[in-house]
Amino acid sequence: MSAADTTEKPRDAAHGTIEVSIWRGRDEGRYETFRVPMRESQTVLDIVTHVQRHLDPTLAYRFACRVGVCGSCAMTVNGRPRWTCRTHVSKVVENGRIEIGPLANLPVIKDLAADMSPFFEKWQEAKGAFTPSKTREADIEPISPETRERKIIDAAIECINCGVCFAACDTVRWNEDYMGPAALNRAWTLVNDVRDAGNAARVHAVAQGGGCHACHTHQSCEQHCPVGLNPTASIAGLKRRTMQAFIRGELE
């Protein structure tokens, strides 16, 4: 374990310092402790950035927009997956300490940067890409926002691919074949898209062993989603849809 301190107190420091334990290394690593200044309106991402810029430039982490749009800054904070650019330190600091690690259920590239490849590979397994039913030469089809299908899609469409639900999911941890909440939530939006032509293959895909019926309905995904989505409800919709397909003889 190593410790580091800033050489001078920044002018906007408000309440002393915070002790921050940060994961270093890959899957086999350790936590190292740093002291960083506590500031007003400070986010967890601000803390990580301070460590990398002022205390240890070798620290690896991922971020982009810093305003809650891209989802790339998700990490584990005090044991819980979070969106660090929108998580204020004052809400999570415990006895002057914070522990920050990479997202769970994913391989670690280095330090706080998790390998998102398994997360997006599950999207591919769930047929999470839109399959057009018309060519680009066709007229744009008007879709009323008042239709039942469009309302279902609107309730689930704002996923930012942060991986928080994947990291929080117990079934992902136990079952390596499980597609995960985000991939299945995406499949549900496409199943309800009247413009999509890939639903036969999609329903077949999500009905397999690692699909929607593997969900144990713990609702960790809903509890942790930083944009307030409910993937559990989407997965329940897929369970109903696949059962209907089975009764109609569309699935073996």
In words, what does this structure look like?
- The protein is α+β, with helices and mostly antiparallel strands and 252 residues long.
- It folds into two domains: 13-114, Beta-grasp domain (Ubiquitin-like (UB roll)); 117-247, Fumarate Reductase Iron-sulfur Protein, Chain B, domain 2 (Orthogonal Bundle).
- It is built from ten helices and seven strands.
- The chain has helices at 44-55, 89-92, 117-125, 148-154, 164-168, 170-174, 181-191, 199-206, 220-224, 231-247; strands at 13-25, 29-39, 74-77, 80-83, 97-101, 108-110, 113-114.
- The strands form two sheets. Strands 2-1-5-3-4 form a five-stranded mixed β-sheet.
- Strand 3 (74-77) and strand 4 form a beta hairpin.
- The radius of gyration is 21 Å and the shape is elongated.
- 38% of the residues are buried.
- The model is unreliable at 1-14 (pLDDT under 50).
- Principal-axes shape call: elongated
Query: What portion of residues belong to β-strands?
Result: 15-25%
Domains (count): 2
The overall pLDDT, averaged over residues, is 92
Alpha carbon gap, first and last residue: 56 Å
Runs in which pLDDT lies below 50 for 5 or more consecutive residues are 1-14
* CATH level 1 name of the largest domain: Mainly Alpha
Q: Any idea what the radius of gyration is?
A: 21 Å
CATH fold node name of the largest domain: Fumarate Reductase Iron-sulfur Protein, Chain B, domain 2
Mind telling me which CATH architecture of the largest domain this is?
Orthogonal Bundle
| Major sheet attributes | 5 strands, mixed
| Helix content bin | 25-40%
- Kindly name the structural category: alpha+beta
CATH-defined superfamily of the largest domain: Alpha-helical ferredoxin
Order of strands across the main sheet: 2-1-5-3-4
Order of helices and strands: EEHEEHEEEHHHHHHHH
Overall strand count: 7
